[in-house]
Amino acid sequence: MGDLHTTPSGAEPRVLIMTAVDAERQAVLRGLAGDPRFAAALAGVGPATAAARTMAALADGPPCRLVVSAGIAGGFAGAAAVETLVVADAVIAADLGAETPDGFRRVDELGFGESLAAVDAALAARAARALQAAGLPVRLGPVLTVSTVTGTAATAMELAARFPGAAAEAMEGYGVAVAAALRGVPVLEIRAVSNAVGPRDRSAWRMKEALAALEQAFAVLREVL
Ligand SMILES: O=C(O)c1cccc(C(=O)CC[C@H]2O[C@@H](n3cnc4c(=O)[nH]cnc43)[C@H](O)[C@@H]2O)c1
């Protein structure tokens, strides 16, 4: 996996940052300004490829002390507006489960898995405080992992009701977190909101602004993580 890592390895275990696509990785690397304590690798889009690539990076690369799932995300109305940074205090596989006549049931309710992936809660809170102290808009809250980007108000409302307090949705966090947990490495998820969760409206996306927010976030976080 050496070609995925763009910062040289040091003697100390590094922080590995997994982004779905290269535009996100480049934003993170700009923020990190060449700091050799960090590496950034591509996870691909979606939880399955994110889990597989995180596992490969952890197995084949130098030792890591922390894995961060990072990138852009959709923000839930009233919780995280566009350009807000969201630090996950929980990572939830929001569409992993079953439809039943009584509605959606999470995989843990069904008794054959875990919907919730643990994050390093103390470090997440510290990261959110540091971003806030730097004057950046930040929210500490649950980040949902979905395999399908929400595209209607009805689905957005259903998810918000199913997971009260959800701040954002993205597509990789749960996969990254499962792989990190299997290797015994703590995990964080940090997102910059590029769009609202809800009706599909590509003209409303603020990709450039979200990537700039991601860069600013990692310029702060390199002193914290
Ligand atoms: O075509 C669409 O309507 C559409 C709407 C929002 C995002 C996409 C993407 O293909 C981006 C997926 C990519 O970015 C993360 N992301 C960003 N916004 C969201 C979102 O609202 N819901 C889920 N994921 C989002 C995600 O982690 C992927 O890496 C297309």
TrEMBL record:
<dbReference type="InterPro" id="IPR000845">
    <property type="entry name" value="Nucleoside_phosphorylase_d"/>
</dbReference>
<comment type="similarity">
    <text>Belongs to the PNP/UDP phosphorylase family. Futalosine hydrolase subfamily.</text>
</comment>
<keyword id="KW-0326">Glycosidase</keyword>
<protein>
    <recommendedName>
        <fullName>Futalosine hydrolase</fullName>
        <ecNumber>3.2.2.26</ecNumber>
    </recommendedName>
</protein>
<dbReference type="GO" id="GO:0008782">
    <property type="term" value="F:adenosylhomocysteine nucleosidase activity"/>
</dbReference>
<dbReference type="GO" id="GO:0005829">
    <property type="term" value="C:cytosol"/>
</dbReference>
<dbReference type="GO" id="GO:0009234">
    <property type="term" value="P:menaquinone biosynthetic process"/>
</dbReference>
<comment type="pathway">
    <text>Quinol/quinone metabolism; menaquinone biosynthesis.</text>
</comment>
<dbReference type="GO" id="GO:0019284">
    <property type="term" value="P:L-methionine salvage from S-adenosylmethionine"/>
</dbReference>
<keyword id="KW-0378">Hydrolase</keyword>
<feature type="domain" description="Nucleoside phosphorylase">
    <location>
        <begin position="29"/>
        <end position="219"/>
    </location>
</feature>
<dbReference type="InterPro" id="IPR019963">
    <property type="entry name" value="FL_hydrolase_MqnB"/>
</dbReference>
<dbReference type="GO" id="GO:0008930">
    <property type="term" value="F:methylthioadenosine nucleosidase activity"/>
</dbReference>
<dbReference type="GO" id="GO:0009116">
    <property type="term" value="P:nucleoside metabolic process"/>
</dbReference>
<dbReference type="InterPro" id="IPR035994">
    <property type="entry name" value="Nucleoside_phosphorylase_sf"/>
</dbReference>
<comment type="function">
    <text>Catalyzes the hydrolysis of futalosine (FL) to dehypoxanthine futalosine (DHFL) and hypoxanthine, a step in the biosynthesis of menaquinone (MK, vitamin K2).</text>
</comment>
<keyword id="KW-0474">Menaquinone biosynthesis</keyword>
<dbReference type="Pfam" id="PF01048">
    <property type="entry name" value="PNP_UDP_1"/>
</dbReference>
